[in-house]
TrEMBL record:
PANTHER family on file: GLUTATHIONE S-TRANSFERASE GSTA, GLUTATHIONE S-TRANSFERASE-RELATED
Keyword vocabulary terms for this entry: Transferase
GO molecular function: transferase activity
Domain GST C-terminal: 87-204
Protein name: Glutathione S-transferase
GST N-terminal domain segment(s): 1-81
Superkingdom classification of source: Bacteria
Native species: Thiomonas bhubaneswarensis
Amino acid sequence: MKLYFSPGACSLSPHIVLHELGLPFDGVKVDLKSKQTSDGRDFRTINPKGYVPTLELDDGTILTEGPAIVQYLADRKPELNLAPANGTLARYQLQEWLNFISTELHKQFSPLFNPASSAELVAAQKARLADRFALIAQTLDKHDYLLPSGFSVADAYLYTVMSWAGYVGVDLSPWPALARYQARMEARPGVAATLAAEREAKKA
């Protein structure tokens, strides 16, 4: 498999999942501005959407969209329980979290990265994100990860999105549960290995 990624982008989520699962893969860095891959290809010929993450399977099939990719990966090693079994209520609860993170957190950050956003829009987005993080903190006050069963692919996605907060001035300090969660995540060998790999990729 090949994971097309850009350091620090939302592709960090499947990158973490691949390391957590111990699946063999090749990482291909993408310059999101030029749309060029590190091996010299036009990324849009691989994924016409032009953004990461993108997973290329061994048979050449292309899979896009982070929540779909992380579930596909988790199902390659179901014994590691990074996603509950398909058809179970727990699997739908995982998908509930993935959808919430995607729509209520991930996309809410987009205006904060846009220098053209007005001060009013930025303030409104930060307030909206604060409401969402307060809800998540309630869950993380009760157990270590989003699902009571433990670490899942939803945590890889949440951690990824939370990592952007400091860059855009979203203050997470009102919720100590979130700080404890970030520390817990960074203590995981799979997360630590991914962060190290992305730091190296950034230098290249």
